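Appendix B, example 12.
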Amino acid sequence: MMAELGLEQETFQHLLENLRTQAHANDPLERVRQKAWQHFLSLGLPSRKNEAYRYIKLRHLFSQPFQLANEKSVTAKQVAPWIYPECRQSVMVFVNGSYSPELSNLQALPAKVVVSSLQEATQTYGALLNNYWIKSLKEESDPFAVLNGALHHQGAFLYLPPKSVIEVPIQMLHIIDQDDQLQMLMPRLQIFVGPHSTIHLVNTQKNLTASGYFVNQVTEFVIDEGAHVHATQVLCNEHPQAWHFDAVRATLKRDSVLKTVCVTEGSATVRTDYRISLGGENAEALLNGVCMLSEKREAHTHVFMDHQAPHCHSYQLFKNVLNDFSRSSFEGKIMVRQAAQKTDAFQLNNNLILNDHAHADSKPNLEVFADDVKASHGATVGQLDSDQLFYMKTRGFSDAAAKNLLVYGFCEQVIEMIPLPSLREEISTKARNYLRAQTEP
């Protein structure tokens, strides 16, 4: 394999091998880590010939001398301002990719809900975790998602027993605090939602660094029969030289629902990769996202929606606003297996480009093996409507105010899906000030 690698890939592969030898001595997860590492070696690092990575500047990533992130001392007082008001007593804190029980506050959660590190979870839920990991590793084809399994430090485990309805949203607060060296962070979340349970999750990030980094995050959901999950991911505080790969994996059983909203302002590269398996009848997955990009920031979305059972519904809506020299891509596949009759699937990618330098790629597609299916997909690329701009200016709007209002109108459909009022208002403000924020000193 090494002979087939380019120079940058080979250098990066050696770096990863060195990191693997440094970490996790006497770790209860070592057996699983070893299996993940062997699977990573069999897959190898991707190149731009890989369809899922064709728009990613991998040579730039592979040339970076990353190190595994160090633990940092962050105080509860420092953390407090970054917790949303609705989540004061329902927050899980991660520092440099590692779950920190000491900084977390879970007082508002029912006593029967289990939250712990993955290492601790193996003591009580080892059979559940091992069975799931064996299955998911066999199915995982993304090298970076597999790499996370081998190198993550202290992941988090969240389990909702049957009929657990959590009234408050849970914030997953990721704090990046490091020295000047380039660090590789590996957050991991394993979330098991029992039958007829309901949960709202909000994933946010606070960057305290003045240099770039590489976040390689994996979030895995197992959503049991009749359960409902609403997950919001916000990546609006990235360093312009940061790399952020986020893999979302979800298995949905009968009558379960997954709804996600992802908001990002991009970075050197933000890549969000979804693999959703609709394995039970009447399961429903709704994926939504909005990117507001400027300067040379990039954001890339990759989706594999796998319809395996009859009477399932999926909906995808991803919107991108691009200015300056920013870039985005969307590549999504809806797979409808032969058994998945009566499928209802929809996929749409809308792109709003504000100048001649920004660039958007879009590749929605379908692969259907069932004969009783309703499925559609599409993509649009356009600019601000000149007639609308003219009309607004005649009514007293400045050029910047008119453009910002149209940008907000473009993004509003996705922003309004954010269930947390304070966060929704924060993102709405970003959209309303999109152009103004870029011109301010």
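Residues 118-139 form the longest helix (22 residues). Residues 36 and 137 are 7 Å apart (CA to CA).
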